[in-house]
Amino acid sequence: MKRLWGALGLVLALSVFMPRVAEAQLSQDDGRVRRNGATLGQNYPNPFNPETRIPFTVGDAPTCSQPGKQYRVSLKIYNVLSDVVATPVLQGGTSGVAGGQPLEKIAVPCGEYVAYWDGKVQATGREAASGVYLYRLEVDGVPLVKKMIVVK
Description:
Elements: H1 2-17, H2 19-24, E1 28-29, E2 32-35, E3 38-40, E4 52-58, E5 70-78, E6 84-86, E7 89-90, E8 106-109, E9 111-117, E10 131-139, E11 142-150
Antiparallel strand pairs: 1-2, 2-3, 3-4, 4-9, 5-6, 5-8, 5-10, 7-9, 10-11
């Protein structure tokens, strides 16, 4: 019951404190969210079971007007109670960044990337339960958020 009230409190708090984030994310087309030179795409497949991929771009890719600049990137997956479920890994390796490393405060140059999540909860190693999850990309402190659905 405490978690239910906590979730309700979180939703109310987010609606009060996050309206400017929602306004900044209004520039959506083709399922992508753009903000300050970063783009977060819709995961695919969606809904999914058991794994998914999350496309994102950093900087003004593909033109990259500042090719030497490094961006600090994090990507986390949350459940609707705002608990961290997992940290996806960078798929493949591009622009001199090794693939397979968790997307937690890593430095990457301007470019297009894909994150991979195996559908498992980080703390337990079990598959995530069916439901709605949020994924949050943060590029140099600027957040972008989208939702995904896990179906069993």
